[in-house]
Design a protein that fits this description.
By secondary structure, the protein is α/β, with parallel strands linked by helices. The protein has 7 helices and 9 strands, in the order βαβββββαααβαβαβα. It has one domain. It starts with a strand and ends in an 11-residue tail after the last helix.
Length: about 230
């Protein structure tokens, strides 16, 4: 059995994203699909003493209706790196593992980025390295596959030699299960219950679904224990 996870690139995504990658044999990054405005492809949440706060990478929107993720340009006229790094230091400098991860993270953010997708994928790979997730990554744009929705997922699986697709539980609402069955591609459903761990600003209570940075800074290498199958 060869298991594929197929997902749009996201900006410093939450723990469940990496739980899915830890459960697959190959990760197909859907880099050439529609960019979602006000989605999580260019932003993620952190915890502050006031509550949740977005870290946002500003992008340049084009005039046409369809904006593909791998075409999105970062808006270099805005000093987003300085602003984000200031927020990260303010809210996480006292976290137990901040000093372990901050230098490399700052180095990545400070590089001269043009395309959002390149930044997203570099950060995803960096987190995978920290969590020892050794899974090859293939960009969908390199596979020369067509289709939409379930057909695209099936064709991508076949293109990378996967006979099984690992889906989040939300896929039950929109996937054509009969099409997968007809194509002889099995479906595995990701089982992920967000774990609780010691966060900063405990007076606010535990806040789930934050950027992976929250888990790394607070829990360090032990984050790997949250990646094991349920």
């Amino acid at each position: 059995m060869v298991i594929a996870a197929i997902h749009q690139p996201q900006y410093l995504p939450y723990l469940g994203f990496f739980h899915k990658l830890a459960g697959c044999d190959i990760f197909v990054a859907m880099d050439n699909v529609q960019f979602q405005r006000r989605g999580v492809q260019n932003r993620s949440k952190i915890k502050t003493k006031q509550g949740e706060q977005w870290l946002t990478v500003p992008v340049c929107h084009c005039t046409r209706d369809e904006e593909r993720i791998n075409e999105m340009l970062i808006n270099l006229e805005q000093p987003w790196v300085q602003k984000q790094w200031g927020s990260i230091i303010t809210n996480y400098s006292k976290a137990p593992y901040f000093d372990r991860y901050a230098p490399e993270l700052q180095d990545i953010l400070n590089r001269e980025w043009t395309y959002l997708c390149d930044l997203d994928m570099t950060l995803i790979q960096w987190v995978m390295d920290q969590l020892q997730i050794k899974v090859p990554i293939v960009n969908l744009s390199t596979l020369n596959v067509e289709g939409s929705k379930s057909e695209l997922l099936i064709n991508a699986c076949k293109a990378v030699g996967a006979d099984t697709y690992l889906s989040g539980s939300g896929g039950r609402r929109y996937m054509d299960l009969e099409a997968f069955d007809a194509a002889e591609v099995k479906i595995l459903w990701q089982e992920f219950d967000f774990p609780t761990y010691k966060q900063l600003f405990p007076e606010l209570g535990f806040i789930p679904y934050l950027s992976i940075l929250d888990t790394l800074f607070c829990w360090g290498p032990e984050t790997k224990m949250f990646l094991a199958p349920s």
